[in-house]
Structures are given as structure tokens and as C-alpha cells.
Fold Energy-coupling factor transporter ATP-binding protein EcfA2.
Amino acid sequence: MFIEMKNVEFIYGYKTPFEKKALENINLSITKGEFIGIIGKTGSGKSTLVQLMNGLLVPQIGDVFVDGINTRDKKKVKEIRKKVGLVFQYPEYQLFEETVYKDIAFGPQNLGFSEEEIKRKVKEVCDLLEIPHQLLEKSPFELSGGQKRRVAIAGILAMDPECLILDEPTAGLDMRGRKRIFNIIERLHKEAKKTIILISHSLEDVAMLCERVIILSKGKINFDGSKHQAFENVELLEKSGLLPPDILYLQHRLKLKGFKIDKFEYSIEKVADMIVKNLHLPFVEEGDGF
Ligand SMILES: Nc1ncnc2c1ncn2[C@@H]1O[C@H](COP(=O)(O)OP(=O)(O)OP(=O)(O)O)[C@@H](O)[C@H]1O
């Protein structure tokens, strides 16, 4: 087991008059190579959950293990951070150096990589994340939203973690920016074989990318299973304060209208193909632009 949570409870402001229980009774096992989506209403505990996964937060009750290491073990913090990299929801929280180069180099420097290795790593992650090398001497604050996100991801990837956690990596980006980030994440999973944990408010994005889905509701795990079981169960989603992805809603409606749908699809391209196939219109021909 790569990440394991046992009976975890987390309380902000513990033993103060401002105590706020954010998570309770969390039991979770994640194996290497998985691609997991974490969804849930605002305030359901998603960000808290992932901060527990790399030891940024430590539970008051229960234990979290990363590759067998208890995250309470202060001597092993670096080792844990090297295994599990967390990209924050707001890139501004992560970018603080004078230049993009220094920001990306910060993590590997901290882990004691040599100057040569750092240079090589920075180049490698910039190529992977499509960050033009002329940006390296700029201040991170001169960058566009999409560039900032890619630099924030690059800074974490430069430490070469086995698992990458991304908290809302596309918030505030336009369609093109989102697609670009998702293509990169998919490549990291398929080609670089990284374990990916993605928090997103967009159920469409989670449905398209992930296989396993965890639904949080009021600090508890409401569901943990396949995306099909999660997204095709409208009652479960509604109980968790979520709406089914539009793409599934459309297919439910089409099915009611007599469309033959054996299996729900999660990408717009596949649904479009299915609709075209079902239409049987004599005037629709291959290659007419639609
Ligand atoms: N630093 C903090 N101090 C006190 N309470 C906090 C703190 N951070 C989060 N909380 C509370 O803990 C609960 C869980 O918050 P968390 O940020 O983990 O939820 P979330 O699902 O990630 O929300 P969002 O989707 O809005 O990012 C919420 O009730 C939140 O108000």
C-alpha cells in the first residue's frame, strides 16, 4: 500500500475555543499507479485530506502512512515530501522566489540535489510542462494564470515524486488552459507512471480523467469506488450535495427518448459519435464537417 489512512480525524484549532472538526473516521488505501479524483462540496474536507497525505498536516487521531512511513515521524518529513508532491490550489502560495528558475529549483535544492542535477531537472520539467526557457529568468508574478500553474507543478515535479496531488489545478483557467494542464496530467500518469490524486469541482473533468472516485461529505467519506458507480448514481451525488456531470445528464435524457445507450461515455467526443450514430439521418455523410 502506498498511502494508507487509518481512523483519521483532523481538527483545526485543536484544544482552542475555535476547534473545527474537518475530517473524521477516514480510512483509505491508495496503491501506486492509481488515478483518483476527490470530489465534494465546498468545505467537505478535500484540501485537508490531501494535506494529510504528505504530512503537511498531521491528524490528532489515527495515522497516515506513506510507503510505510508514519507522517508523524518528523525525521522522515523530507522523505515523505519526496514521495508525495502536493500542488496547492493557489499557485501564489507556492511561488515566492525572484525568478521562475529559482522557484522550480527550490525543491530539489532543499532535497540536496547537486547544481548539475538541479539544472538538468529544471530543464526536464520545463520541457515536459511546455514552459519556454526564456521564462526562467522572469519573476513568477509576471506570468499568466496558466503559466503560473505550470511553474507550480514544475516545482513539485522537479523533486520527482512518485505521487502527484493536484488541488484544483485548473481553477480560473480558460478552456485551452484547462485542456493543456489535463493533457500534461494524463501524460504524467500514462507515460511517467505517476500516481495522481486530483481534487476538482468539475465532475466532468474527474469523470473524464479518473478511474477511482472518492466523495467527501461533511468531513467523511461518502463513497469510494469506480467512477461509473459514482457518477451513474444520481441519488448518491445529490446526497453529497453534487450534481451529476452534464455529459451523463444528457445521456440519461437521450436514453429516455429511446436512444440505444448500453454504456455511458465520459468524453464529449465519444458522446458526439454516439449521437451521430444513433441519428440515422440519410443526409449526414462522413466528412461533411460534423
Ligand atoms: N485553517 C483553518 N482553520 C479553521 N478551519 C479551517 C481551516 N481550513 C479549513 N477549515 C475548515 O475545515 C473544513 C474543511 O475545509 P477544506 O478546506 O478541507 O474543505 P474543501 O472541501 O477543500 O473546501 P473547498 O472546496 O472550498 O476548497 C471547512 O469547514 C473549513 O471551513
Summary: The chain has two domains: 3-242, 245-282.
